[in-house]
């Protein structure tokens, strides 16, 4: 069995971080393969530095195309430093966000253009595509309210965008789900956290039964 590349996507406040914190140990318990959990932007020394810059609300004047390029640069470095070595060693990589985020946030949210953002990312990734993607779906209103409740005024540069920006992001994600139905599995993330974790585990272990065994107590 080779390495397996799984990503988790969703609008801000969908619950990716909360879900991953519970899903990762559960998947690890169900698999004999080594697993790593990582995130974008970031995941490595250089990419985390770029993350600090991109998300810092002090840089509100950042140009939209510069933003696309910074996300792509962080991604490139993350692939070289972390993702590719792990996959080449046969590991399972669970990654919080990847190219789909750039398509949704920069392509649609910032209106830079889906095709343009896809092309830049093709250069950055040399075509590396996740084997499987979980998309946690939540309406923008609910997502933003969750973020406000948990982080108050400590929201980052992207989270602080208005409702219409986040609605464009969600709409683009829903289109991605439609267009990539073999890869992207949508989960309704408005339900309770435990339910979302259970559905996520079930989706992955059903798609890859040779990698994950359901543990019977
Ligand atoms: N299913 C859920 N139901 C209700 N609240 C939830 C659910 N999932 C997460 N939350 C809460 O919503 C807030 C945001 O969750 P979390 O940080 O996991 O989201 P996220 O998708 O990682 O956000 P971001 O992409 O902005 O980092 C937290 O306070 C978390 O406890
Ligand atoms: C990878 C990626 C991310 N974003 C946005 C989405 C979020 O608002 C932040 C990352 O924060 P998180 O708490 O780690 O989810 O960045 C983006 O706009 N484009 C991207 O490619």
From TrEMBL:
Cellular component GO terms held in the UniProt record: cytosol
Keyword Phosphoprotein: no
Known catalytic reactions: dTMP + ATP = dTDP + ADP
InterPro entries named in the record: P-loop_NTPase, Thymidylate_kin-like_dom, Thymidylate_kin_CS, Thymidylate_kinase
Top-rank lineage group of the source organism: Bacteria
EC number(s) on file: 2.7.4.9
Cross-referenced Pfam families: Thymidylate_kin
Role according to the record: Phosphorylation of dTMP to form dTDP in both de novo and salvage pathways of dTTP synthesis.
Similarity remark: Belongs to the thymidylate kinase family.
Name this protein carries in UniProt: Thymidylate kinase
Organism annotation: Tetragenococcus halophilus subsp. halophilus
């Amino acid at each position: 069995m080779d390495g397996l590349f799984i990503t988790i996507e969703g609008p801000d406040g969908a619950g990716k971080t909360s879900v991953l914190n519970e899903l990762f140990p559960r998947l690890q318990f169900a698999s004999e393969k080594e697993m790593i959990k990582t995130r974008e932007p970031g995941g490595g020394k250089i990419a985390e530095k770029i993350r600090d810059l991109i998300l810092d609300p002090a840089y509100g004047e950042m140009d939209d195309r510069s933003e696309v390029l910074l996300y792509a640069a962080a991604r490139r470095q993350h692939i070289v430093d972390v993702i590719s070595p792990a996959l080449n060693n046969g590991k399972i990589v669970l990654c919080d966000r990847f190219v789909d985020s750039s398509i949704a946030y920069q392509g649609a949210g910032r209106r830079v253009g889906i095709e343009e953002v896809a092309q830049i990312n093709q250069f950055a990734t040399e075509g590396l595509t996740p084997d499987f993607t979980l998309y946690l779906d939540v309406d923008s209103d609910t997502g933003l309210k969750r973020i406000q409740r948990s982080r108050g005024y400590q929201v980052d540069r992207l989270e602080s965008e208005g409702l219409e920006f986040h609605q464009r992001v969600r709409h683009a994600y829903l289109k991605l789900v439609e267009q990539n139905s073999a890869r992207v599995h949508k989960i309704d993330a408005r339900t309770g956290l435990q339910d979302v974790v259970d559905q996520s585990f079930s989706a992955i272990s059903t798609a890859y039964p040779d990698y994950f065994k359901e543990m019977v107590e």
